[in-house]
Design goal:
Layout: H1 3-22, E1 27-34, E2 37-44, E3 54-59, E4 64-69, E5 75-79, E6 85-89, E7 97-100, E8 105-106
Parallel strand pairs: 1-8
Antiparallel strand pairs: 1-2, 2-5, 3-4, 3-6, 6-7
């Protein structure tokens, strides 16, 4: 192998190995109250949307109390429960995003 072909091979290896990290993105979710509703917008750090993804609501004993799905605007809507809760957006390939009720404000 010549010096030039070794450099090209090493460059291609590095490009293939590290290029996925450059394109990595992670899930995000923000939630707010509107009257008796809880709304959550899910998406990704690269600005892409999360259409038709599950968002689940749990009580503090980790019981599932409601299931939602993001709509074409990447928003999931829930009826506000009478108990403390947290919401989870699990995109499946990254760590899930959790939003606790104490983090949620009126919009």
């Amino acid at each position: 192998m010549t010096m030039k072909s070794s450099i090209i091979a090493a460059s291609l290896f590095c490009l293939g190995t590290f290029s996925t990290a450059a394109f990595a993105h992670f899930p995000l979710m923000s939630c707010w109250f509107e009257a008796d509703k809880v709304l959550c917008e899910a998406g990704y750090s690269d600005g892409s949307t999360a259409v038709e993804y599950n968002v689940d609501m749990f009580d503090y004993d980790d019981n599932l109390i409601a299931k939602g799905m993001t709509d074409k605007r990447s928003i999931a809507e829930f009826t506000k429960p009478d108990t403390d809760f947290y919401l989870v957006f699990d995109a499946g390939h990254e760590n899930p995003v959790e939003v606790d009720v104490v983090e949620i404000k009126e919009k």
